[in-house]
Design goal:
The chain is an alpha/beta fold. About 30% of the residues lie in helices and about 20% in strands. The strands form six sheets. Strands 2-3-6-11-12-13-14-15 form an eight-stranded parallel beta barrel, surrounded by four helices. Strand 7 (about 175-180) and strand 8 (about 185-190) form a beta hairpin. The termini are far apart.
Length: about 475
């Protein structure tokens, strides 16, 4: 009666042994396959994180600087609700944003524009009217009053959140008609009656004029400001009571998002930054990395990484993650690249969480779009990625593997921080892959919680990790 039981036990043991051997053989083969991919060391620098300048001092004692650098929130979208309550809306969110790890907010153009209470601010009339003068049909701007704006900035600073102003200095709108001797016509270039009485302008402050016929570009037929005119330079960045220094020293803005920088020379932003200071980023809408990098260097400014944006769109939505190997601004110049997934002008990427998992684990200065965070995506998942960015996304970058469906990259750590490995999977099934980490004989875990594995790296630093379908995992030392 006992012989069949012995035979069954023997068969089970043999089967288990064969399965184990097969599994080990498969693992060896899988590891060998991964070893065929030549690791791409993307960046080569000392590993320091992106810096936005001096830290804020706060009575709360909260910190801003963290191992991975900062995260910016674009704190508006196109056509936010009119009615003058947007500054209050944003003010009500800064504490939660600060707790989540947001280090800065980018506000829409704050001054009075041609369409008054209905304008999004990109048609500026009076740079010193923040909603406290009755002109262009309203006293408040679309976003609120000057008092509410100051209160928002103060509240953000209490949370150690920096505040960046969207500055439109290419063009103006809302002037009165005047005879223009340079065009032989009447032009809408008479800004002598702005309610603030500051930075009055006339036809000689706009092209064409005594300084020339045009600059690098004009926008939508609006009067095109002439930055070659000393009067314009004086009021924008030279005078102690001019636009830049008033915004920075009186309104307490910490930096600038320059609108449509294709419309004027990079020297303009360079001069502004040299005379006013503060963090700056330019909107140079171009996917060509050379153009982005040349402008950033000439302007002494950061620039939005449109090259990264379009590559992510092609990679994630076009199902070819190998495109993430291509050149981007953050790879060329990581300390001057501001990365993003969506903004108020363009929203093309469908696989947004994969894109956020990319920019929040890679180099550059990642930006989160208000509606993605507050309305459209999973806030808990975004908060998790913000935490990962701030605490684990350190050091230079190496691409460990990429194909159509899979992308694995490693942040190599900095100043005692271990860095991370991010695994992005654009397929419909779970994937597993052997990769080389920074760590030998060390237990690691997925800090997203998407995987429950707790693997230990081998002596040669190799380890097998996994990633969920249409998802991502982020691995680092289990501590």
């Amino acid at each position: 009666m006992k012989k069949p039981i012995v035979r069954l036990f023997f068969l089970t043991a043999i089967t288990t042994l064969l399965y184990s051997c097969t599994n080990e053989t498969n693992d060896v083969d899988a590891k060998a396959e991964s070893q065929q991919f030549k690791i791409i060391n993307v960046t080569n620098h000392d590993g320091k994180p992106f810096s936005t300048g001096a830290s804020l001092s706060s009575p709360t004692g909260k910190y801003v600087d963290n191992p991975g650098g900062g995260v910016m929130m674009q704190a508006f979208y196109w056509d936010v609700p009119a009615g003058g309550n947007w500054w209050n809306t944003v003010k009500g969110k800064v504490t939660a944003w600060g707790n989540a790890g947001i280090g800065s907010i980018w506000l829409p153009p704050a001054s009075k524009a041609q369409n008054g209470a209905f304008s999004m601010g990109y048609d500026p009339t009076d740079y010193f009217d923040f909603g406290d003068y009755n002109q262009n049909g309203s006293t408040e701007t679309r976003f609120g009053s000057k008092t509410e704006l100051v209160s928002l900035i103060t509240s953000a600073h209490t949370e150690n959140i920096k505040v960046y102003a969207d500055i439109v200095i290419n063009h103006n709108s809302g002037g009165q008609s005047e005879a223009n001797p340079y065009t032989g016509t009447s032009t809408w270039t008479n800004f002598s009656g702005v309610a603030s009485g500051k930075f009055t302008r006339n036809y000689n402050d706009f092209y064409k004029n005594s300084y020339g016929n045009n600059d690098e570009g004009s926008f939508g037929g609006f009067p095109d400001l002439c930055h070659a005119n000393p009067h314009v330079q004086d009021w924008f960045w030279l005078r102690a009571d001019g636009v830049g220094k008033y915004y920075k020293n009186t309104m307490k803005f910490d930096g600038w998002r320059f609108d449509y920088v294709k419309g004027f020379g990079a020297w303009v932003v360079n001069s502004w930054n040299a005379n006013v200071g503060g963090f700056s980023v330019g909107e140079l809408w171009d996917s060509n990395v050379n153009i982005l990098n040349d402008w950033a260097n000439a302007a002494n400014s950061s620039v939005f990484d449109f090259a990264c944006y379009y590559k992510m769109n092609d990679a994630f939505d076009g199902n070819n993650l190998a495109l993430l190997n291509d050149d981007m601004m953050w790879k060329r110049n990581p300390y001057k690249a501001v990365t993003f997934v969506t903004n108020h002008d363009t929203d093309e990427i469908w696989s947004k969480m994969l894109a956020y998992s990319y920019i929040l684990t890679h180099e550059g200065y990642p930006t989160i779009f208000y509606r993605d965070y507050e309305e459209w995506l999973d806030k808990a998942k975004l908060n998790n990625l913000i935490w990962i960015h701030n605490n684990k996304a350190t050091g230079t970058t190496s691409i460990l593997y990429s194909d159509n469906d899979e992308y694995v990259a490693r942040r190599n750590g900095y100043n005692g921080n271990p860095g991370l490995v991010v695994y992005i999977n654009n397929s419909d099934v779970w994937q597993e892959r052997w990769i080389q980490t920074n760590w030998a004989n060390t237990q690691i875990k997925d800090f997203t919680g998407n995987s429950t594995w707790y693997p230990t790296t081998q002596a040669d630093k190799w380890v097998k990790i996994q990633c969920p379908p249409k998802g991502y995992s982020v691995w680092s030392i289990n501590q």
